[in-house]
Design a protein that fits this description.
disordered N terminus, elongated, 13 helices, 243 residues, mainly alpha
Amino acid sequence: MSVFSLKVLGRTTFILALFLLFPGCGENSDPSSQSQNSQELILSATEKQRIGAYDEAIEILRRALELDPESVATYYRMGLVYSEADQRNEAIESFKKALKMEPENVSARLGLGEVYSRMTRNDLAVAEFLKAESLKPDDTELLFKIALEYWYDQKIKEAADYYRKILAIEPNHVQTHLNLISVYEKLKSWEKALEEIEISKQLGRETNNDQAIAIAERKLAFIKGRMDMTDKDYKRKTQPPFD
């Protein structure tokens, strides 16, 4: 045998030895493919979700459920992945499975509410958020979500009540003051609307929030024009056919 052939044979033998020593270098190089720990699989799926590999994430989570069929954390993560992938029905089903096992899981409750909100099912969204509120009554971010859902559903008085709940906890919540301007405008509570405008402008000056000041100024101009306008005139100016 030639020297060249011996070199080739030696190199081939060396490569084969590497594959035998390091089997993980083959097709199943993903660490999660060999894991028998559901928590590790959830972490792996979360990373897949982060990079947008949603199908792979779901496949990993299914393996996690095979190991632990009663895992609330797995169903919750599955709901988040499906939601991010805009597979809303699958997301709803996953969140509901998590909540069936753990009804007081606030994260799953909020996840379900967010899916309903994106589907413009504001009635269902607010129902989930209200259940979450019973567990976190002083969470201003949650209260803000509820107020918005009521606003979208045109339940104006309920929206006003929840904005006021926020201010009872956080009096300087500028976005709440700005939103209340529109709420009071809808309720034709002109004095309260004007008061909220002044509060918003003052908070804007105190925090160097030029955007808040600009929004309040625009709403002031609108309300000044709206106050002396009849409903008939308002509809004529804001709904087609325009005069």
